[in-house]
Amino acid sequence: MVSQIRSLGLGGISGYEVSVECFLSGGLPNFDIVGLADVAVKEARERVRAATKNCGIKFPISRITVNLAPANTKKAGTVYDLPVLLGILVAAEDIEPIPDDCAFFGELSLSGELRPVTGTLPMAIAAERAGIKKLFVPEDNAAEASYALGVTVYPVAHVSQLLNHLGGSELITPVESSEPVAVYPETLDFSEVKGQENVKRALEVAAAGGHNILLVGPPGAGKSMLSKRLPTILPDMSRDEMIECTEIHSVMGLTDKENPIVTIRPFRSPHHTISSTAMAGGTSNPKPGEISLAHNGVLFLDEMPEFTSDVLESLRQPLEDGQVTISRASASVTYPCRFMLVCAMNPCRCGWYGHPSRRCTCSEHAVQKYHERLSGPLLDRIDMYIEVPSLEFEELRERPSAEPSAVIRARVNAARLLQQRRYAGTGTECNAYIGSKMLDKHCALDGACEKLMKDAFDRLGLTARSYDRILRVARTIADLASSEVIERRHLAEAIQYRTYDFRDEN
Prior knowledge:
Mean pLDDT: 90
CATH architecture of the largest domain: 3-Layer(aba) Sandwich
CATH class of the largest domain: Alpha Beta
Largest sheet: 5 strands, parallel
Strand order of the largest sheet: 11-14-17-10-18
Distance between the termini: 83 Å
Number of domains: 2
Shape: elongated
Helix content: 25-40%
CATH topology of the largest domain: Rossmann fold
Strand content: 15-25%
Number of helices: 21
Radius of gyration: 28 Å
Low-confidence stretches: none
């Protein structure tokens, strides 16, 4: 008898249906798993054998062949343990055939308990697309799987519990789906930041339009502190954005029972020793990198010039395209990576170049070499350059009542709502990603603004890309002011964010 059990697999961050076929035949006892199974999948033989015996069921003494279809797609991981066990039991006629609207996945312990697996949400979404109505998953994965609409999720703690459910003796209560709620950490809030009003304004503009930003200032000025608080003023995530982020984090094993879904925009801050593979994604079985983990959120590069050139240059195309394609001999996978790039750096290696009271120990040549670590094409993809000055003693002593993050986030949400309505149906979510045709339509300048822009273009030596980025930032500033048109004051502020040049300080 041949049994068929529906299951799911992962390809990148997308799930797909896998049919687990089991056949018991005569001959010498043997247990084979075919269908391009990797080592972890083939090791399921021993886990299934032990779990079956420890559940009080006699393991069939026959030749067992398990096929994972489609057989031309590589299978990886431990998700097939549970469906393989069920397929063997059905083929051996130890349990009744399983309804076709059910699917199963999960890793088995030797005692028959189910352990959580990675990639639960994308597999649950794939189950919904495949018309599966009932999905049986490890108990710790159930909350995450429940966010896939149209699928009833059953949490399974032990194989015996599942067998009782299938036999009708003890039914498992399905998980109730709930809407995700964002909870912002109270430890990081803009109300705690002393001074730096100009920098906070720039971060608000960047958050409202999704603009890339570079903070330049001496050590201790607050660059990292301000950047780490940026997620608290970013616009609220939509359900679709939460799902997109959770799919990536789930594949990487960054979700758990307590935090089944990503509700706050990600903030990724890799160390400067990171490799280009870890940044962009890769390995033999292509996995998402830091830029994909930062999707819909922030990628923060502290001490930007300390990153190797190949790491920095690997950001150029993803910044433009919003996705990265990783090609390996085994597969070619495309991951989303629409993120806000936030960078921080000192003006020189010692950090005191151009400081009014501290003496810089770097030579002019050393300062130049330090700045040359950042290529022109990469800097051209940054929308805003912000100087972060050192705080004076009086500013540190004072305790002014600064705006809390929630108030700033309300303004950012209002600006993003205007952008979503303006670009509805175009696939564009915010000003940072509008194309040239949309720039002409939504960022038109009057005569006074045209003259101001021409003067800035000639004086600053702007490129065409820089010109477009100034227009995008100006559009965001106008949105924060609830203005339908870009006024001269909006454009002037946007140009100001391109005028700071740390290379010309003296």
